[in-house]
Each structure stands twice: as structure tokens, then as C-alpha cells.
Input
Amino acid sequence: MKRRHSLAMLLGLALSMVLGLASATTVTVEIPKYSDATKPFFEAAAKAFMQDHPDIKINIQETSWDNLHQVLVTDIAAKKAPDISIIGTRWLPEYISSDVAMPLALPSSFTDRFIPAFLTPSSIQGQLYGLPWAASDRALIYNKDLFKQAGITDPPKTWDELQADAAKIAKLPGRYGFGLQGSQIETDVYYYYFLWGAGGEIVGADGKSGLHSQAASDALTYLKGLVDAKVVEPNVTSNTREDLRTLFGQGRLGMFIYLPPIIGWLKDNAPNIDYGIAPLPYKTTPVTYAVTDTIMMYKPSVTGASDQQVKDAQAFLEYIFSKDNRVNYNKQEGFLPVLQDVAKDPFFTNNEKLNAFVQLLPNAKFAPIIPNWEKIAQRTTTMLQNVYLGKEQPQPALDAAASDIDAILQQ
Amino acid sequence: MKGPPLAARRSRPTATAINEQAFAYLLLAPAFLLAIAVVGYPILNTIVTAFSKTNAVGQLAGPAGFANFRQIFSDPIFLQALWRTALWTLWVVGLTTIVSMLLALILYEDLRGKRVFQLILLIPWATSVTMTTIAWMWTINGQVGLISNTLQVWGWIPEPLGFLARGPSALVVAIAIGIVVSIPFTTSVLVSGLHSIPEEILEAGVLDGAFGWARFRYLMMPMLGPFLTITLVINLINVFNSFPIIWTLTQGGPAHGTEVVVTYLYTTAFRFNEFGQAAAMSLITFIILLALSIAFSVQTMRTRLS
Amino acid sequence: MRNPIVKGLAYAFLTIISIVILLPYLIMLITSLKTRQEVFAFPPPWIPKSFYIGNFIDLFTKVEFGHAMLNSIIAVGSATILTLLIATPAAYAIARLRFRGRNWVVSIFLVTQMFKPVVIIVGMFQVMVFYHLLDNLVSVILAYATFNLAFSIWMLSSYFQTIPPAIEEAAWIDGASRWTAIRTIFVPMARPGMVVAFLFSFVAGWNDLVLALSFLRSSGNYTATLDIFSLVSGQYVVEWQLVMAAVLMATVPVVIMFGFVQRYFVEGFTAGAVR
Output
């Protein structure tokens, strides 16, 4: 079996050398798995593209989000980086500082199609390094039936209302009021909803951690209060965002915060839940968290690509952002449109629930795109988990985290 | 047990002492070549990286002396992880050895259903450790787990199970899983070790009146010595370096409550992009394991000579 | 074991351990027979409503699981055979021959065991790129074989040392050449040790995720473990019923193999060989 593989490889190599002198370029695209629909979309797009461009071969490789970063690091280290990759936008600074990210040279006729807010995370120092691939924001998802049972007429708008409503629902047997995420990725974001909602910032204007502020204190004390009042689900620190979604789908959770794909998920997995979508409750400032995942290109120094290959990769990049492709993609994955013409498509304008998410965009805040962001996020998460578990009191925890984050920001 | 006795060696048809040595090296060569070809460079790379400055994508950027080491030893999370790794390793290896020894002794006897039990003991080996962990997570899951729900319905527990919500209880789960996945290997080695003891020795001892504990202590243990050492050292190394169980369960959380060296290493490398520090951590791990193995080898050699 | 109390305790112990081992598999089986909606149903039912076997079918149509299993068997089988081919002569040398450095050989190989793949993955990836083996099953075959060397050599050499040399010498005196003695007398007696080494190596390769994840990129080359992992790794959607079905399927061939091979564990020596 081993010999057959090597033989095939040798034959393939020989064959491709004979044929390949007329340079068929191979463009490699690395994608993370959002759902079962991700890869089929790319493969279909690749197939259509290859039909129009017979001398370009598109190679789609998929991995999990959890491993994407590691896979890319090993690729880059061995100078075998993919031509195109979808990445977490927070990784851009490290790629730019290591000089492996390629500034995109795209015509303005193309970039003008984008909703401007979504281009900001990947525009650094005046250069565009990537395009927004998946965009989402966050809203309060609430169970209308449970609200009725608890005697609540409207979704909460303020923090006080949120706590009061959660308490009412928690009184129902076997039900939990508000879903608080305490585990894994974006645990810190759950806190930022409230930090921002109290007027705070993650990084202050003075370049120091926003955890020094009164807003940070208010937000953390409020969340701790929810845990102590037992209006949230039990075992907060073992609940990921998807665990909260499961609880909601089972009809046991009154409300929680999630992104647009919830619409498709509930339709597939819990079609009987009557739910509504509302803006996030706030203290002083209405806000939502907007995220983009970025699709970007690596420099030839780590991909080994020829100029032709770079051109071909860029052509494919533009191709997958065609209106039809994007409408298709957004329909399948349930993310927000990033192109203005796509946003005007009747599928989106007529989709009441998706529109509810879109309405929140004017108040959107993004996470700061700074180096060492992961360290800061991790430190914040640790602080939150310690407070939720009761191992630390809010104020000392904030002070400790704030000074650690200041140190990280200095690095 | 050190090769053919002198008399036989002299009467062997073709070998002289030098030829014997050359022949030995010939037999060992393929193994050395494979090892060097596959892991030689990576190990060197790790050592060099530990003493270098690195950028965010893992490229080396000049020598850094001991800076990486200083950094990690002043990191309280790393020190806690080191301590926790020692605890985790000792618990898993210790309990596994005891349980497996009991199992091996029991299975040495003739019992009804012995074959079935032996097969069951091997089953955890048939599933990847990651999948076993996922299966256990599913089993003890508080929201959709059958166990948790049934216990709640019976009124045995007031709230859903939350083993993974806190560091200490999550570590207990990890230790339990670690033991379960180590039992097949350890038991197998000990069983085949028991079967390598010539029956005459055991029978002779029994005839001399040594039953039960005495038989175990004075007849079996010495002959099992080398096999026990194998399981202890291999388990020590594997458990110390064990990544999938804790990572799948909690990724080192909550709040670094289950962080061990290898999970923190992974986080440091692939989340924080500090490759120099991660390499330094692997070197520290290596030195610790090397020291332990040498200690074991010395111990084994000493008992062999006696 | 004549004492009935001790016997009873022994059975109890075995039973408890067996339950602890089998319980997750039971739950996996139950989950794999549920439909997607049933999986998250609350309260979760112990008995699936309809014993839905569609999940197992889906495995073959949705993720080419059959192909992945084949890849695993080929890759891991080859690696294990390679390990044994290389480790056995080395172990024989340590057990039977005198040479300088004999006491340290095993320790040197243990060094390769002390760096777990996840720790040196960046370097290993570069090595495989250098050999042009990326996305090729040969890369994992070589890697698995290497990481199993230390244990195999150690286990085999220890086991070989328990075989009295007198047996081979008896054959020499009877006129057999060294090789014939090894083949006809030594190897059969070494079988239990070789079986354990084979199993350990096979399982280690079967279990691996990190190496397969880094070296194998196109889904046609995925091993079974990697395939299962890709099922679990969707960011927003994990179909647990498929995952459980896949894990069970991946376990079955290995358990069958264990079943066939376990008699070698317990065979003692051929009585009377020494005399």
C-alpha cells in the first residue's frame, strides 16, 4: 500500500511536470468549518470558477475553528501557507507585524460594494488587508411562551428590567431566567455587552485597560448579582455559548444573547419555540457587538506563489464575493450581509427576524484589533470565571486584571 | 539473563566479541535512523526556539539567552500548572498501577468469564482518548446527560451535575478518565509479565508453603520488576504529557483551574503566539521526564544487580 | 482462589470496573440511535423512540467514513508492522548481544517518547514538508512508527530477556544455525510480548489526532479519527448523533482485533521446553 501511494505520487509528479509547463496554477484556500454547509459552498463556487478558468485549479481545505490557528502557524512556518484563508480578524495584527499578510489591491468598484462599517476591522494603517467574510452582531433572544407564563409583556430594555424578568422566569419550575456564558470562546464578550452598556471601553483613551473604570465595576457587580440571585442557569462556568443555545432550544431558558445563525438553528432543531429578537438591555448606552471573520491573502514569501498565482487567487477572491454567491452563502449560514447590494435583496429585507439583527448595527462596537488581544481576552475571561465561581470578589478581581492587562498593552 | 553464558559463546560457530558488537549495531541501526530522520530535527528545532526570540508566526528572530525561561518561571500560572501536572500524574499513575495490578492478579487465576472481562478491559484502548473523553463528557453532561437527569428525577441531586464548572471536580473527572484509558495498557503488560514467570518457580514456592501475600511479594514481584518499571515509566511520561483529556474537557479552565503544563504550552504557542516560551516549557518538561527516567533506570539496574 | 470470599470480591471488583468502562459506550449507543431532534430533547430519554439507524448510514454518505476507516487501517497497520520490523532486531540485540552502550539504548529511545507530538508539531510539519510527504499517508505512517519505537523496543527486549537463552543454545548444539533457532524457537516464545507491542503501537496510531490533523489536508486522506474530529468541530453545529455513531464504528474493528489476539496474552510457555 505504501509503495502504491509513492508510485502514484511519482507518476502524478511526472505527469504534472509534463503538462504543467503550460502553468496550471493551483490556488489553495483554507476555510474553517462553520457548519456542514461551509465546504459544499466553497466547492461549488470553486467548480463554477474552474469551468470559466480552465487553467486555474482551486484547492479547498477545511479545518475546525479550534485548530485553524495552529494549522496556519505550522503552514506559515514551513512556508506552505495557503493563498487565501479565512481567519479570525483578531489574528490580523500578528500577521501584519510578521509581514506575512498581503495588502489587497482591489479596485474601488469592488470595495465600494461593501458596507463601510464592516471594512474597518481589516483596514489597518490605511491599508486593506482582508475582506469581511462572515459578519454578525448580537441580540437578546427570548422565549415568548415563557414570557407569557411569567407575566412579562415586553422584552427588557434596561438592566433592572432584565434582572426582574429573569427572576420571574426563574420562579417557573425547572426554568432558568437569563443565560450567562461562562466557558470558552467569547466568555469575555458576554461581559463586554454590559461593560459597553454602562458606557465603558475595553481599552481606555489613555491606552490603559478599561477595567479601571466605574463602568467596568458596575457591569461586573451586576453580573455577579445575577449569579448570586440564581436567575441564571446553574454551573455558569461550564456553559459555553452553544450550551446556552441548547438550553434555549429545550425551552428551559427564558432569554440569552446570540447571533443571527440562531434563526436557522432553531428552525432545524427546535421549531416549536416561539421566540423574539430584541436589542440588548443597557444601562447608559445601547450597544451591540459586531464581529467579522476576515478572508485574506498571504504573501508569496510564505506561500511560494508566483505572480500569476497571486493574480489568480485574487480573481477567485473577487468571484466568491459576487452578489449571487454572497446571497447564497448568507442564506446557508445565516450571517449578516456585508455587501450593500446583498443587503437590499428581498430575502433579507423580507426576513423579519434577520432584520431585527440588522437594525442593531448602528450601535455596533467591534473588539479592538490590537496585538496580544488573545492574552487580554484570556485574562479577562479568567477574571470573570473567578468572580462567577466566587473565588474572587469583583473589585479586587478587576484591579488585578486591570494591572495585568496594562502590562500586556505595554508589550 | 545477559546473553548466552560464556561457555556457549565460545562454542558458538561464527561470533567473536567484535563481530557481536558490530552485529548488534547493525540490528539497532534502522531504529536509530528512523528516529533521527523523523524527530531529530523537530527536537533540535524546539531546543533552538527555546533560546530564541520569536515573532508572532513562529519565526526565529535572534538569540534570547534564558529570557524565555525567566519569563515562564515568573508566571504564576505556569508554576501552578507544573504543580498540578505533578498531582495529576501521581494520581493517575498511582491508582492505575494499583488497579491494574489487582486486575492482573485476578485475571491470572482461572475464573469463569475471564475472556469476557479481558476483552472489556481492552475496550478503552480501542477508542481514541479524545473520543473517550467526549463520551464521558456526554455522560456526565448536566443539560442533556441521561445520568444527570435521572439522578435529578430520583431526587438524589438538587441541581444538574456540574463537574466541569469548577477546577477541582473537573480534575477528578480527568483523573478518572486518565485511569480508565491507562488500564488496558498497564494490565496487559502486567498480565504478560505474570505469564513470563516460569510456573515451576511459582509451584516451588507454593510447595514451600508460600501462599497469597507471601507468594506475591517474594515470588511474583521480583520477576515482575522489569514489567512494572516499564508501565510506571511509560505511564509517567504519557500522563505527564497527556493533552487530549484535559484539553477536550476544559481546555485548562475554568480560570486555569485544570491547567497542566502541556495545555498551557499549547495555549502559549497557538493562542498567545509565544513560541519561544512554549519551547522553553517543552524543554523543562523534557528535563523533568529525563531525570525521572534516569532515576528509574538506575533503580532498576541496582535491583537487577542485587 | 479457593477462598469464596476472595473470589466474590474479585468478581465484584471486575464488575465495577467493567461498568465504569462500558457505561459511556452504552450512552454513545443510545445517542447514536436517536434522531437529531431527540438528541437535545429534555428530559433525555433512555430509550430512543425509534432505534433510528439512519445515522450510521449517514456516516458513509455524508463524510465518507468507510474510506476514512480504510485509510486508518492501512496507515496504522503499516506503521505498526514497520515498528515491529525495526524494533524486533533492536530488541534482540539488547537482550542477547553484548555491546558498548547496551544499558543506555533503551533510555536513548525513551527520549523520543518524551516529546509528545503536540509539543514539537511545528518542527515535525517542516520535516514532512521537506520530505514532500505533506497530505500523504506515508507521513503519518513514519511518524507513528517513530513514536512507537521506544516502547516496542523496551517491551520486546524485556520480554526477550525472560526467555532462557538455554533454549536457543540447545538448538545450536543440535546443529541449527543462529537464524533457524531464532525463527523456529525464539519467535514463537516471544509471541505474547510481540502481541502487546503490536497492540500498543496500533492503538497509539489509531488514537492520534494532532499528527493526522497537521499532515493530512484533503478529506480523501483523512483517518477515521480525523473524520470524527471534523464532525465534532463545526463552530455552530455539532451533530452528536453522528459523532457517537462514528465513534462506535471506529471502535468495532479494533475490538474485534483484540478479540482474536487476546489469547496470545495469556499463553504461557510451552511446558517442558527447558528440559
In short: Chain C touches chain B through 114 residues (CB under 8 Å). The radius of gyration of chain C is 23 Å. The CA atoms of residues 68 and 220 of chain C lie 7 Å apart. Chain C has 13 helices and no strands.
